[in-house]
Amino acid sequence: MQINSFSLSDQTALVTGATSGIGRAIAIGLAQADAKVIVVGRNKQALEAIDRLALQNNLAIHSICWDLLDAQSLAALVVQAVAVYGDLSILVNAAGVNLREPAADISIESWNLTVKLNLSVPFFLAREIVPFMKKNNAGKIINIASLQSRRAFANSMAYGASKGGVDQLTRAMAQEWSPYGICCNAIAPGFFPTALTAQLFEDKAKRALLAHQTALGRNGELDDLIGPAVFLASKASDYITGQTLFVDGGFSAQ
């Protein structure tokens, strides 16, 4: 295998949840690996900031402001995204929400919001993009799972259920679409400083405890996710599908 198997110079990616945190880091990382990247989010100011960063660093990034919760509009989003660079070969489903509610406080509305954004949108968006991947007999779908895909944490029942679903959805996607050359995998991050984990990272004692519970003795930095994402998006991972890669510093090994 040549080292250029990790290059994304001929690839076009769509990354959801790209206005902050994990999605933003992965989007920029894919662009740094020479992919053409379409970033999708609802925060217009954050998207404009990414556009400025791309311009300053000569990165091929194009932003689209879109509400993914409007399920009926996902087909239109894909049409608009394909029109930017002419194709789509990589999808990163990074948009997500964790409301951190005790079970007794979960409403049907908050449950449905969590499951829809974390689990339903990745499937329905992928289904709209798959025909473009089938046409080329190649594609990479990367879902964002979680430590809670395999274990439980307090005050996260809806989130944990949705992320457990992402783990299984990834396997089901692989079974359905891998015969068409489409590799479907997931990244399960450990504890990283994002908007979803702000409450934990603001507490110095909790932050230190989480770091102590990892084999590497530290919490994640967003740059730690770029290598795994580029790997799963590149030709270097062409014989890997249906897998969830835990990028957690060894937290799940303890």
Write a structural description.
The protein has helices spanning 21-32, 44-56, 74-85, 108-136, 157-177, 198-201, 204-212, 226-233, and strands at residues 12-16, 36-41, 61-65, 90-93, 139-144, 182-189, 244-247. The chain is an alpha/beta fold and 254 residues long. The protein has a single domain, classed as NAD(P)-binding Rossmann-like Domain (Rossmann fold, 3-Layer(aba) Sandwich), CATH 3.40.50.720. A 7-stranded parallel β-sheet has the order 3-2-1-4-5-6-7, with helices on both faces. α1 (21-32) crosses α8 (226-233) and α4 runs parallel beside α5. The radius of gyration is 17 Å and the shape is globular. The two termini are 33 Å apart.
Task: Offer a few descriptive terms.
254 residues; 8 helices
Quick overview of this protein structure:
The chain is of the alpha/beta class. It has eight helices and seven strands; from the N terminus they run βαβαβαβαβαβαααβ. It has a single domain, classed as NAD(P)-binding Rossmann-like Domain (Rossmann fold), CATH 3.40.50.720.
